[in-house]
Automatic annotation (TrEMBL):
Keywords: Hydrolase, Metal-binding, Metalloprotease, Protease, Signal, Zinc. It comes from the Eukaryota. This is Zincin. Residues 1-20 form the signal peptide. GO terms for biological process: peptide metabolic process; proteolysis.
Amino acid sequence: MASLGHLSLALLLFAPSAFAAVAKPPTPAGYEYTPRFQYKSKRQANPDLTRPPQTPPIFNDTVDSLKVDAPGLCNQTKAVLDKLAASVSPLNATFANTYGPILQDEHDALLKMYIQQFYASVSTDSALRDASSEVASVQSNCALEAGTRDDIFQLVEAVYNRLNGTVNGTVDAEDRYLVEKDYKGYLRNGLALEGSKRDQFKAARSRITDLQLQFDQNYSGDTSVIWLTPAELEGLPTDHINSLAKGTGENEGKVGLTFKAPDVTPALALVKNPDVRRRIYIARDTRVLQNVPLMKEAIVKRDEAARLLGYPHHAALALENKMAHDVETVQPFLNGLRDRLYERGQEEIAGMNALKKKDHEARNLTYDGNFYYWDRDYYNNIIIETEYAVDQVKVSEYFPLDRTITSMLHIFESLFSMHFVQLSAADLSALSPSGNAKEMTWHEDVIAFAVWEGDNSGFVGYLYMDLYPRDGKYSHFAEFTLQPGFLKADGKSRHYPASALVCNFPKPQGSNPAFMTHDDVVTFFHELGHGIHDLSGRSKWARLAGTSTARDFVEAPSQMLENWMWTNLTLSQLSSHYKTNETLPTELMDALISTKHVMEGLLTLRQLAFGLFDMKIHTPASHEEAEAIDLSLEYSKSMRNSTGLKGPEDQGEPENWSSGEATFGHLMGGYDAGYYGYLWSQVYSTDMFYTAFKADPMNPETGSRYRHGVLEKGGSQDEFLTLEQFLGRPPNSEAFYKELGLE
Ligand SMILES: [Zn+2]
């Protein structure tokens, strides 16, 4: 996920431009670039392929250069827009004279903008990370300023009206689509409002931005831990317990468990003492309390802004530019799925609860008949180990990191007709304008590829892999667009895209390989899918390229690829025991594949709980209702009603015990009235997989048709149209329900 996590949609729609030149410091001596990962493609090698026709992105920004360059881009955009407003009037505004300069400036800017924000997630230098985070706010303010200019809106409106219903030989379907999206974006920015309404709208919007920044800072700055004794953490591997911070003073003898995924996820799955799991669960869902009023205010302000624009509530506004389009589509989708899955969820709970009863009796623990939130991961884990006989550690021995990634790239090469060529230090030096390999990546562990067409007939773009964790680095898995692809001003040649996969696999030590769990294998294939989506983009305009699709579609291509990691064919191709090179034994492979749908009812119901909560709080019937809403209560109710799991409210705590909304970053970071999208895009991913790939997932002809028919389009046309063209009929949800066992 998080393919667009680093970039707000507003930014994509209203991007500023160009860069000021700043002297860069010389490279420190002693730089070594010798990544241990060495890729061998199955395709025809050719030394020319290490010298692509376009200089790769350069990573030589500094704290000082960012301070100058980021506002510089913004000033450049402002200058372009000023000039445009002075030289073109609504009477003579055309696509060419209006959008020509806007998009040219945007293309220049985007070559720099993503990278300026990227350091925040990957740099080892905390000052550079901070400066890069600062860039994000400079860029978003700049985008807001550019996107709320009356003079430019008047030109855009004139172009929109002129194109609407008329045929113009110089404007193609993609141009029209862009203008329509852009025009509606301006309307959503309040440009059609007048007088005091306009001021009120602007004030609400600007307050929402402040609230989001504050919420983010509180959340990412949260360093809270729960102090527990090693004995209380029994079940968690000793290595893990030893790696936790040691307490002093009143916490002497205890260790601090953080609420970050690498700590809290295994703790909830492995800690044996149910009361300790309960304390961990409650502590996790009642922290960063200063965010509770911030989200509440954001909900009220969003409602106010939406009503000023004439929408019935915020969800109606937020859904307008999504595939699902309106609340009347999303609500029945979520509620219907919940109703159809609820019984399955209760059966899963009953199965785990029977196990819990036995377990508690065997361990002389009290058993009150309830199955709680903090029981789910623990008993789920036991069921996978015992009933499905899948030893995940054993499985991971068949997925040594380097070999598995190599095999995945082979699959992508053959399926999508591509050729990955790893670049050496000498290649990077040769490609660097200053002859300096160091500035061609952001860290010496980063692996760089030149990506070519499978028959070497043309260049595709650059792909980077940053595989291992390090201090200050983004701690999950995500794909980042570094540079978008687009058609250059000459109308013939292209700027080739660049994409980075930021991962956190254990680093191989000495001659010992690192291993991937099956979960890792699925995740990496998913992220690689986002990378290929970006690399495949062939839109004219950067803002519509690759992963710049509607947000409730963007996950579909990667979700579809996850299916490959659950087939015998692919798993045989990928697996290779680190000692014997043997593929995963059939028995273990079948057992693994049979876990694909384990607890899927409950897992999906949990996603539905989040989605329903999100829709509930963004669809108040009146503004007064928005002001009166108790988010904590709605959060707890939604979790409980959707999953059927018990919580502290069943043990005498108040019903609004949780403040889970305080750490629900999605709802403050662009997924407001959008969380449903994760499930919604699965409808399309499953439809595409079943219809085109399921019978023959490695068919290169289908792969090529998919690459050029779906990935290549990016967001340059309506996603429904893209799907219809690929499937040969309108998309439907049959396969989605079938995959869930709901025929
Ligand atoms: Zn994703």
